[in-house]
Design goal:
With about 200 residues, the chain is of the alpha+beta class. It is about 40% helix and about 25% strand. It is globular.
Length: about 200
């Protein structure tokens, strides 16, 4: 799917746009190994010369570190297609989804999507992300489930959520330069996804 600007998606699918501070800080213990490895990569490696490099070196390692604590019930999918209909389809960079009782090879209910802000264009990133959040909502078949979204360029991380027909963007964004704060925000969203999974999905 290709939508730009962001307002086009809001209008096309009749979503109400709001802004609020909904992200809370949920403390997360970052391992010293992770801190040292990230510092090494940022200091010595070529980490942002391409979209793939940003995903592999900055975005995925951060997501994976949080996901390890939720791996019993959730799984991260990379570039997994979301296909609801001709208008609502796409390939988010990463999806946090329910771990299927059939095994890790089966894609199940998506709860959180991350889209890369390519060339630091967050408006286009959010246009793609919101459309894919709507697709995820419809694929889940349970409109009560809140779908969370993140748009990131590796350095800056912006958060949003879709509740029924209301999309809310968190007014504060987070940065990899303040690692503990970023991880606290991510840990909160992962926890909210897990809480919903327990509430709406019988496992």
């Amino acid at each position: 799917m290709s939508f730009s600007p962001f307002g086009e998606v809001v209008k096309e699918f009749q979503v109400r746009y709001t802004e609020a501070e909904f992200i809370q800080q949920l403390a997360f213990q970052i391992s010293e190994y992770f801190r040292e490895d990230l510092q090494l990569m940022m200091r010595e490696a070529v980490i942002d010369n391409s979209e793939f490099a940003i995903c592999e070196n900055l975005i995925y390692p951060v997501l994976k570190e949080v996901w390890k604590h939720y791996r019993d019930r959730c799984i991260i999918w990379s570039h997994q297609s979301l296909n609801y209909d001709e208008r609502l389809r796409g390939f988010p960079e990463y999806i946090l989804a329910r771990r299927s009782p059939l095994g890790k090879v089966v894609f199940d209910k998506p709860y959180l999507l991350l889209v890369e802000a390519k060339q630091d264009n967050f408006e286009t990133g959010w246009a793609q992300c919101l459309a894919e959040m709507i697709a995820a909502q419809k694929l889940n078949g349970e409109p009560e489930i809140i779908i969370y979204g993140i748009v990131s360029n590796g350095d800056r991380w912006q958060f949003g959520k879709l509740e029924a027909e209301v999309f809310t963007r968190n007014t504060t964004f987070f940065t990899i330069q303040e690692l503990d704060v970023l991880f606290g925000a991510l840990n909160y969203e992962f926890q909210q996804c897990e809480v919903q999974l327990r509430s709406y999905v019988a496992v």
